[in-house]
Prior knowledge:
Elements: E1 8-13, E2 16-21, E3 24-25, E4 35-36, H1 39-50, H2 64-76, H3 80-88, E5 98-99, H4 104-125, E6 132-133, H5 142-153, H6 157-170, H7 173-180, H8 186-193, H9 195-204, H10 208-231
Parallel strand pairs: 5-6
Antiparallel strand pairs: 1-2, 2-3, 2-4
GO biological process, one term: proton-transporting ATP synthase complex assembly
Family: Belongs to the ATP12 family.
Keywords: Chaperone, Transit peptide
Amino acid sequence: MKRFYKETSIAPGDGGWQVLLDGRAMRTPAKAILTVPTQALAEAIAEEWRAVPEKAEIKVAHLPLTRLAATGLDRVTSQRAQVVDDIAKYAASDLLCYRATDPSSLVQRQHEIWQPLLDWVAERYDARLSLASGTSFVTQSPAALLALREAVAAHSDIALSALYNLTHVAGSLVIALAVAERRLSAEDAFSAAELDELFQIERWGEDPLAAQRLANIRNDIDACARFLALLEDKRLGGS
Length: 239
């Protein structure tokens, strides 16, 4: 579908902010009016559509914030408990809990970058996760898993859309929660999530397929982090 509108704007409505295309409220794929909680997020979504060149094809890949908002409204709202469970289950096998045994430089890097995040989540949510070495599997305590599920469930439907994507892409609920709590920047989240891959690239170099894969992951993490930050941004008068 090519760009069919001339102007984009935002307006308050239905307890939030709506994005308008030529004065008409944008709708999600399920035909709901796309309404977001903050003016900052609405303006960022409007800017995505404003940036589409005249007569150009509208590509979903170029509208990450729009996609996250629509997913939250269309899918999460109707199956919230399942989405919470799907996110929380990552705590049982979180990437940060599985450590290499060699080489020593990788072992040290994992400890330096990952351990502070595990220490943070233990203090922040009273959820202490156990570590495993090599290919062994570790069973996490029910108390820690419950605490992290409650942390996930504390998020709004629209925030869960980004939290789900972020957890899935990073392979780590701890990383996702750290981004949501602004404990971790998008760039640092990418570095933590792809620590092993980046370590191997330093040693052996990078091929084009790996480079494209990492670029996609970086973009996904950045979009989710920005989305979550804009949900909390009240500077533009969002409610």
